[in-house]
Amino acid sequence: MLSIKRIKDSPSARNTGIINSSGKWIVCIDSDDFVHRDFLRLLYLAAKEHDTDVSFCDFQVVTIDEISKTPGFYTEKSSVLSQKEIMFKFLKREVKIVVPAMLIKRELIDKKGIFFNENALFSEDSHFIWRILLSVERVTYNKSALYNYLRRPKSIMTSSNAERIMTGYREIINLVSSDSIWNGYGEVRKFVIPRWVLGVLRASSKYMNIEDFKQLAISLNYKENMKALFEFPELKAKALAYLMYFSPKLFYKINSFFHSSVFPFCKLRVCDICCPVFI
To answer: What dotted CATH number matches 10-150?
Structure first.
């Protein structure tokens, strides 16, 4: 057990834990979440069976009253996805990934120097996941929701201001600008920033007032990024991009309406940006 008096942000806390760990595998479970009793066993066995450095499972978003909710679907079998498959599936949100539901070999983190970006005070998980996916040949994936992700009334995202969001934007731009890590994945690379921006705009429209939302959209260069998504290989994201490009006000109203009518007591967490659950 490592006792830390004070850590400023989540990336620093996670990095401190990784640096001081002594095991062969790393998992970053949030302290207020809940995992299925087979969570670690199934991820570890899948990684060992298929010789992968990364193993992850599906997750479900729950309230505090549902914290120990069992998965609606359960299987002990995991599938193997190549690097190309998982990158395109993650880009199109066909597979949703959150860092706490990932089991990662410590050797991979040390060899590639993959730590959480402490300059990103927002959506640091997205930056981390992309670096992990760019560093593996394949991954194992269990479709069971073995991880319960607690949705809280107060969270990192709901207390985030625009400047925190912009730190995430700057760091995702820096990531995409690193030519050496994107070899052979130009078709993924060109959509990473605009898809991230769409996720931020969709999520922020649910908790910001209209004027703050408009200002954030301008800061995120929404016109250029939404136009880039006109060729995105997934219909829903493409339609939302067209809507935001031509009418930010209508985009805002539609998103805030559906959120307030369906989830009136919920706020969003960082996972909604890293892996947009409702996008």
So the answer is: 3.90.550.10
